[in-house]
Amino acid sequence: MRTLIRGGTVVTCDPSGATFEGDVLVEDGRIVAVGPVAAVLEKAPAARLPGLTRVIDARGCAVVPGLVQAHVHLCQVLFRGMADDLPLLDWLRERIWPLEAAHDERSLAASAELGLLEMMLAGTTTILDMGTVHHYGAVFDACARAGIRVFGGKTMMDAGDGVPRGLRESTRGSLKESDALRETWSGKAGGRLRYAYAPRFILSCTEALFRGTVERSKSSGALLHSHVAEHPDERAAVKKALGDDDVAVLRKYGFAGPKTLLAHGVQLRDDEAKAVARDGTRIVHCPSANLKLGSGIARVADLDAKGVQLALGADGAPCNNNLDPWIELRHAALLAKARTSTTALPAARAFRLATIDGARALGIDDQVGSLEVGKRGDVVVVRIDGPHVEPGGDVMSRLVYACTSRDVEHVLVDGELVVSSGEHRRLDRETVLTRARKQARALSARAGLRG
Ligand SMILES: [Zn+2]
Known about the structure:
Blueprint lengths: L1 E10 L7 E9 L2 E7 L2 H5 L9 E5 L3 E5 L1 E6 L15 H15 L2 H17 L2 E7 L5 H11 L2 E5 L1 E2 L14 H15 L2 H4 L1 E7 L7 H14 L2 E6 L3 H11 L3 H8 L6 E5 L5 H10 L2 E4 L1 H6 L7 H6 L3 E4 L12 H15 L7 H7 L2 H6 L17 E5 L11 H8 L5 E6 L2 E5 L2 E2 L4 H18 L5
Parallel strand pairs: 1-4, 1-5, 6-7, 7-8, 8-10, 9-10, 10-11, 11-12, 12-13, 13-14
Antiparallel strand pairs: 1-2, 2-3, 5-15, 15-16, 16-17, 17-18
Helix pairs in contact: 3-4, 3-17, 5-7, 13-14, 13-16, 14-16
């Protein structure tokens, strides 16, 4: 199948940052031509043949790389609105863990489907997902059906205070279940599913568990994913329990380097930021969640200047409450100004966090993250001519400061049109919503909470 996206403002996110009025041609899952209007058809005359090419009219739209969210929790989507206005550790122990422990395969599938529907309608084409402890196969299965590109893994918890019995694992059992999931799912759905080992955070994991995941990442190439330096209280608890700061502890365990993605990093000191940059460890900025849980504002512009490889993510529905990459983009850009200066993180820089930088953080920038010939056909067409966007500003200003997820019209993943004119072509909106409402009620009853 061939798709020609015609006459939009193409935002390549390539090394030169080129934007121009032009076309993008996708064939057999890959981008085969990108260029000014007419130039693409000159290079690929077969695209003129009627019947063989789907043509998307992108006038009034920007054509951008698929958006990357490098820290989300699909398992928590059903908890949206069930855990508002609480600090991090209470939020986890009183609400999130009991709810996660109450999941079964059906509620988890419903949660994942709703999150995927929301994120893909908003132009998200790649995610890094941290699951709950059990039934992670249901999440991979939902991802395969939805057509998204995903790195994901069950969360791992073999220690900690206040962990419900249903989530508490043995170290060996946790590693074994993770290995089995990787073997079953990694490389499936045309290579779009990949495993990431995900020990939850220092307070709920032993040293042996962290070290076990590091060994496995080295031998299999799988990513490592956890949380770090999110909230001052959590940091203090780590220091009290282990006598050292969380960043130092993770580095001692070997849980660091280019395969390691750590969410948050809000509390990083200068010396820690430099160490993280030296190691090549990735930090995933989650600005809305940091605000809602009162964790603070990450020094993203400083981290960027120190050479920390950054990405962006919405985190979980109960700490956000959306999984909307456009809100995260806007918050990242605005909060950098409040935290550092008005010139910090200009629109074009911010937009790369959600595209090529996210892809680089995941180690797949040779495949996605920019519109360049040879890359996978992950492409988003977003209106930039709405009444909340017009009449001014260049395309980057429009995308970061004015556009919303409702402006996303079409989404391609691997060249497949998964969202067309604002409707998901694989997930039925009403079915997903009905199932999510029903499963959320059953889940909160099982967890002993009122929905
Ligand atoms: Zn998280």
